[in-house]
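Sample entry (181 residues):
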Amino acid sequence: MKRRRITMQRVTQHISDPLDFVVNNASNQARSLEFRDVGFNIAVYGDKHYILRFSTEDNTGERRFGITIRETLNLIFKTIKHILYYIFKIDNFNPINFPSSKLRNQRIVLIDKLLDQEDLNVVVEIHFDNIETYEFTIITAMRVDDFNIGDGQYIIEMTNNSSVLKQFVRGTKKVVDDFDN
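Predicted structure, serialized as tokens:
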């Protein structure tokens, strides 16, 4: 019986590095962090600015602690249903950016109010990718109780499973609505 020949085949498949920075709807340099099916798909990316804030020293010479991928992902997935709730309930609230829009991309600040430590603040851009997929890109994150918010920007403050939707107007956080789970 003859032995089967070993043939050399060319590899034509592209192998991607999970640590590569790629282009997504919000950033030219974002790292894919997670892709999860929640009835529709949520793809979460980390902008290079965010990735560098917890992985290397910032311009003050210090690394930001308490803003790991796991902590920020937990906050994002904890707020998704609250974001949808407010989109459906509040007429002028829609933080989702669409490709056809000529407006500046909207960003929303997600805040996890923690009793025993400083607030976790995560700035995200949400983009419609297709009917089944929405992209969340983490622009930056910081643990601080007095995070700077831009005028007109929306904030969702989470305390356990409850949330408060606020809008920063003329230097004041104005309560728009709340949801107590």
